[in-house]
Amino acid sequence: MTNRNNFVGYYESHRFRDMNFSPSGRLRILLPILLLWLLAGTGWAAQRTSNLWWMPDLASKGGEQVDQLIYFICFLTGGVFVLTQVVYIYFLIKYRARRGVRATYSHGNDRLELVWTIIPTAIFIGLWGYSNHVWWDVLHSTPPSDAMELGVTTYQFAFSMQYPGADGKLGRSDVKLISNDNLFGNDQSDPATKDNFTSAMMELPVNRPVHIRLNSKDVIHGFYIPEFRIYQDAVPGRTIDWVWFTPTHQSSSLWHKQSLILAQSCMVHLPMGIMS
User: Fold this and answer.
1) Rounded to whole angstroms, how far apart are CA atoms 91 and 81?
2) Long-range own/partner contacts, residues 111-116 (CB < 8 A, 24 or more apart)
3) How far apart are CA 49 and CA 272, in angstroms?
4) How far apart (Å, rounded) are the C-alpha atoms in residues 9 and 7?
5) How far apart, in whole angstroms, are the C-alpha atoms of residue 259 and residue 250?
6) What span, in angstroms and rounded, lies between the C-alpha atoms of 128 and 73?
7) pLDDT, tens digit, for every residue of 108-143?
8) The overall pTM is greater than 0.90
């Protein structure tokens, strides 16, 4: 009886150890935590009332190229996923264990491995090249000369807009001049800055290019307008002056600013109006 009890105790202790310290035991603990984290992440998403399961309606010129790229990537990856799963299921059925049929060993095929390495590499390089072209053509190209200038300064946990006066110019600015009393870093010696005015709402003209002068007062903030297919980080100590777009629909909605602070994220929703 003593030997039996010792054996049972040894077995139970090792079973407990395997459940708690083996990779499978740790996985059983981590999976529910990961699932809860993923579900909680949906609460951080930008709230929308239309097109809930896909991108919001496009409201700017040039955004079509971004949409085409996203559609192409979705269809490409979806097609590859279906193809690989079909091949996977085919091989599972064709080479399943059967009575009287011996398994054969295959060391692999160097030519086949080379092919399925080159093809994905070529696809990724092609996507990189086209994505880079879209980036430069849509977001990073030179804004038109008649574009409306708009200063945007982000900070925790709000933002400010600066509009030019009658002269249509914001004037000179410098990130070194940004402070609580001068959020946009305006150079007060420049007469063009004298008639600038600020607002808590982004008001844009329809069918006219808008050139953004983007600054951050404290941490990295994401300047995000999904309807315009625009996302650009505002970086402290740097003026981002290459963002521009042309609104094409007259409406009132929300644009979004995401503040990235260490590992935390804060989404702020702010009003935006597109007027004729």
Assistant:
1) 16
2) none
3) 16
4) 5
5) 28
6) 11
7) 888 989 998 999 999 999 999 998 888 888 777 888
8) no
